[in-house]
Amino acid sequence: MMKGIVWFRNDLRVHDNESLLQATQDNSEVVCVYCIDPRWFAETPFGFSKTGPYRAQFLLESLHDLRQNLQSLGGDLLVTLGEPETVVIELIALHGINNLYYQLEAGTEEASTEQAIVDYCNAKNIAVHTSHGATLYHMHDIPFALDELPHIYTNYRKATEQKSRVRPLLPTPIAIYTVTNVASNPIPTLAQLGLATPETDPRAAMVFTGGETAALQRLHHYLWGTEALKTYKETRNGLLGADYSSKFSPWLALGCLSARQIYWEVQAFEQQRIKNDSTYWLVFELIWRDYFRFVALRYGAVLFQKGGIRQQPGAWHTLPKVFNAWRLGNTGVDFVDANMRELLYTGFMSNRGRQNVASYLVKDLKLDWRYGAAWFEHCLIDYDVASNYGNWNYIAGIGNDPRDDRYFNIATQVAKYDPKGQYMHHWLYS
Ligand SMILES: Cc1cc2nc3c(=O)[nH]c(=O)nc-3n(C[C@H](O)[C@H](O)[C@H](O)COP(=O)(O)OP(=O)(O)OC[C@H]3O[C@@H](n4cnc5c(N)ncnc54)[C@H](O)[C@@H]3O)c2cc1C
Question: 231, 289, 369, 389: which to mutate for ligand 1, most atoms within 8 A of CB?
């Protein structure tokens, strides 16, 4: 009798989940586990933890939902507060596991955690099965070896669209049989992670609820419910409200929603409702997301270093007072402050906002971009290692931007995107 363990990471779903599906096919019994890593909540040299309250809350909600979805298939989810190198290895030994399944992640810390577990499995003759479920185009299908990845997005996108196909969705397992004697435990609370429950700010663009169930509802709402997808290309630079953009990012980041699921739903929408520039543009943005993930895999540790993937550090300072004013939305520049307060009080910020506040930190305040990236990592409910650090590299001029001189002039941006000052008023004066 074969026994498998699925180590869930940023693939918190039962739909289109290669690791879960393969584990249920290869084994008569499986253990599903998620490790909440205490290192995510320890203070970093930046003066705050990697994971703040909004992101942690979204994660816990996603875990509750995944547990429920696994239970409805006959399985369960063990959620443990502990380092995966310890927890996964202990479970393998305790239950006499033959096969390990997990999704490969992009960051260097993620990779070193993986390595410790793989080393153990190799020593004990336990088969390791990895999957690449996070991207739209499967990593093995793109027309480039990682070390030949084009430096410019457009070159990557055009070749990929021409030569590759998005794979079909994988089916959800029909049934899951859990290894006997696996004790289901309560999912830790925010308080156990050392965090207070964050307030729900009535000014928030929308209420984000973690988990696959809410993700699929949002997908349905944005396409079939409101048909907001029809006008995405025109509205995507918006700042206020729920539907100017898809808001899929928090669910994509934790893998509550698969990028392929979005893609195939967009194809259906194009057949049944309308195909236009907007329907294409959502896919275009998902290809950006893929690209940053492949960039992260290609460059590894340099993505996080001061000089970024170009290895060209700027003359940036670390001025704690100036950084704190930026972080807490007290710079005195209304557009920057409004966006930073939205982030602080909700864990979300629009793409237009992110570009502006990041550019302001690096090019106007001349602060080290890594401080800004670390604050985004702490706050953003959609934090994704590759998208965050890839975009920060890009804005800081040390990444994949073909232009060296890109600069977001705040006054010009306000005139274009918040001409009546409604967004600034919403966050600063209402
Ligand atoms: C400095 C900076 C940091 C960022 N950090 C993150 C991050 O940690 N996590 C994250 O998911 N996105 C990040 N982004 C990208 C982008 O801002 C968000 O993906 C987007 O605002 C999420 O809202 P949405 O889902 O409504 O996007 P939509 O406009 O509806 O786009 C659809 C999807 O396409 C993808 N996407 C769109 N733009 C980008 C982009 N520039 N880079 C990568 N993927 C993109 C996202 O998955 C998004 O959900 C960052 C951008 C900047 C400028």
Answer: 289
In angstroms, what is the span from residue 351 Cα to ligand 1's centroid?
Answer: 6
Please compute Rg for the chain using Cα positions: 22
Instruction: Give, using CA atoms, the residue closest to atom 48 of ligand 1.
Output: 249
Give the span between the Cα atoms of 301 and 114, in whole angstroms: 15
- Cα-to-centroid distance, 368 and ligand 1 (Å): 21
Q: Which atom of ligand 1 is nearest to the CA of 385?
A: 8
At 142 the pLDDT is 98
Domain ranges of the chain: 1-133, 140-166+212-298, 305-428
140-166+212-298 CATH pick, 3.90.226.10, 3.10.20.30, 3.40.50.880, 1.25.40.80: 1.25.40.80
Q: Would you state the pLDDT for residue 171?
A: 98
Name the superfamily (CATH) of residues 305-428.
DNA Cyclobutane Dipyrimidine Photolyase, subunit A, domain 3 (1.10.579.10)
CA atoms within 13 A on the CB side of 3: 14
Tell me which architecture the domain covering 1-133 has in CATH: 3-Layer(aba) Sandwich (3.40)
Per-residue pLDDT at 209: 98
Task: Specify the pLDDT at position 182.
Answer: 76
pLDDT for position 347: 98
> What is the model's pLDDT at position 139?
97
Looking at the CA of residue 286, tell me the nearest atom of ligand 1: 34
Name 253's Cβ contacts closer than 8 Å, sequence gap at least 6. 10, 381, 382, 383, 384, 387
Helical residues (DSSP H) of 300-409, grouped into ranges: 320-327, 334-346, 351-359, 369-379, 385-396
What is the residue with the minimal CA distance to atom 19 of ligand 1? 249
**What's the CA dihedral at 119, 120, 122, 124 to 10 degrees?**
160
Nearest atom within ligand 1 for CA of residue 282: 32
What is the block-wise mean pLDDT of the chain (430 residues), using blocks of 10 residues? 97 98 97 97 96 98 98 96 97 97 93 94 98 97 97 97 98 92 87 96 97 98 98 98 98 98 98 98 98 97 97 94 98 98 98 98 97 98 98 95 88 98 96
* Minimum CA distance residue for ligand 1 atom 49: 249
Which pLDDT does position 321 carry in this prediction? 97
CA of 37 from ligand 1 middle (Å) equals 24
Compute the distance from residue 65 Cα to the ligand 1 centre, in Å. 24
The pLDDT value given to residue 281: 98
Closest residue by CA, ligand 1 atom 26: 247
